[in-house]
Amino acid sequence: MKKFKRYLVTSALPYANGPVHIGHLAGVYIPSDIYTRYLRLRGEDVISVCGSDEHGVPITIKARQEGVSPQDIVDKYHGIIKESFRRLGMSFDIYSRTTSPTHHKTASDFFRKLYDDGKFIEQTSQQYYDEEAGQFLADRYIVGTCPHCQNERAYGDQCEKCGSTLNATDLIGPKSAITGSTPVLRETKHWFLPLDRYEEFLRKWILDGHKEWKSNVYGQCKSWLDLGLQPRAVSRDLDWGIPVPVEGADGKVLYVWFDAPIGYISATKELTPDWEKYWKDEDTKMVHFIGKDNIVFHCIVFPSMLRAHGGYILPENVPANEFLNLEGDKISTSRNWAVWLHEYLEEFPGKEDVLRYVLCANAPETKDNDFTWKDFQARNNNELVAVLGNFVNRALVLTQKYYGGAVPPAGELTAYDRETVAEIPVIKKSLEENIENYRFREALKDAMNLARLGNKYLADSEPWKLVKTDPERVKTILNVALQITANIAVAIEPFMPFTAEKVLKLLQIGKPGWDELGSTALLEAGHVIGTPELLFEKIEDSVIEAQLEKLATTKQANLAAEMGKEVTPQKEVVSFDDFGKMDIRVVTIKEAEKIAKTKKLLKLTIDTGIDTRTIVSGIAEYYTPEELVGRQVLVLVNLEPRELKGVLSQGMILMGQDATGKLVLLSPTDKVGSGTIVG
């Protein structure tokens, strides 16, 4: 395996049209920070770069919705994201932005070199143009009726109701989302990167040369290559972005997918005048941390751009994660179905490492995974408090109690002592292998195994029982326990930097390097430790219930909004005589039972005031038979009888639907006589 002189770690640029949520953290940023911190502890030459992705159509849409400029939007969210990352302990060497002058020049120069070298092809196509606004329309600025499901609010790239991928020209009755006018088709010219020219290179580089990549990454790359690559536009008609630096390209900007990855290069330029050694020296190992939705851009498109330009190294690995769901539902920015980092930091002060720990322990490394608040609570209480916090606290408290906080000298080690300390380098080796192969969940287990080792050692040795009969033995036990504690501070630093710092402060020692992990001489005899403090605290049920209630409120609001969008239009006007033909009465339910071999149907016996009859109703999912007996409801009693599952149904119960989609019985507010006519 090649030994590299330096490392360049990049993290996907978060899009600056909203804050960062836990899905982003679990997919990209926590893994990136673990890897970077590990390399720093090893004393490697490493830089970590990131920044805000600030161009593209969603930014302009957000700006129009809020009545501000695109610059206002990116300034707002760049600030929120950057500060949130800082507070979470993300150790980027630079967090830049794609609206910076350095980035504009870098991206323009990159495009111009490819243009001058004849690496692009020019194509003319028909696109929608808004004559009132005087501009070509991006797909998201075109709305119309979906040809598949007749949703009247489909966008030019996708119908969010049925999920179909669309072209703007597929829409029925397209309208401009800017002016509401009907757009016209006009010719427009754009530049394309012919990815098909790089297929042979990509096949050899990825499929033959990088079989060690994660299966989800390798598999997606192979799928794209097997389908055959097509030219991809690198410019578009838009007034927000980096202008295409070519004569006759007025009103055209670099497509955001082309502009954004160059942000890694421009950020490195801003960081150091020696940027080229990180981008152009084969002794540099470049690793891209991304989510699975960015695999094609970082494994196929960006490498093709770098290859077309020439002189740049390619990534050695792209350890993309899958998606993290929230309480069984897909995280959605537009539906506010997320745990936002900036809100978490306000609501859980001092618990940055709890979030880092849980998101790593539950990371979607090989498949989509689910974050739940109950699991968050359980991992905090049962692992951080009961395992890690418990061991460190016991080791420090016993030292304070028996020796006034001075590290006792170790006497002769027993076979069990030697067996215990011999486990530390074994754990270290596994920890290193897992981090270097991007298995961060397993690496975190390794780090926690040091605390489990310490807990078992104290439980087996029982120094609190031996202190009166064999005080010399207790000195050795606590020396070993404290050495394990110091080792823990090193091992957990990539995962939980705030906790590692707190342990070192409690031990009153400086930060050891990675090469010192495994040593049993990190603390000298006689060294005085600090006053013990708890590393973690239990999270109570009430705290979790508040978060679940917050999500429930969001879900209700989303359902209500969806129902508002889907309100059924008024039906045809009917005459008063037609309405008069309907006999709607208040009835009383006398008996109710489920109909065998059905999930939804109930057989109800009702008193209509006229007679006692049977009605079949599809409400078994929402009401139990016991709940219904004795209730008064509204029924259309003169509906033509119909046989359902062998039961003759004579009438129909009138119902509504609440914000959650649940069917709700309509009842009089006061009790009235059965048979009372409604009209």
TrEMBL record:
Keywords: Aminoacyl-tRNA synthetase, ATP-binding, Cytoplasm, Ligase, Metal-binding, Nucleotide-binding, Protein biosynthesis, RNA-binding, tRNA-binding, Zinc. Its cofactor is Zn(2+). Binds 1 zinc ion per subunit. It is found in: Cytoplasm. One of its GO terms (molecular function) is ATP binding. It catalyses: tRNA(Met) + L-methionine + ATP = L-methionyl-tRNA(Met) + AMP + diphosphate. It comes from the Bacteria. Its EC number is 6.1.1.10. GO terms for cellular component: cytosol. ATP binds at residue 333. One of its GO terms (biological process) is methionyl-tRNA aminoacylation. The keyword Metal-binding applies. Transmembrane segments: none annotated. A motif ('HIGH' region) lies at residues 14-24. Homodimer. Belongs to the class-I aminoacyl-tRNA synthetase family. MetG type 1 subfamily. Is required not only for elongation of protein synthesis but also for the initiation of all mRNA translation through initiator tRNA(fMet) aminoacylation. PANTHER family: METHIONINE--TRNA LIGASE, METHIONINE--TRNA LIGASE, CYTOPLASMIC. NCBIfam families: metG, metG_C_term, PRK00133.1. This is Methionine--tRNA ligase.
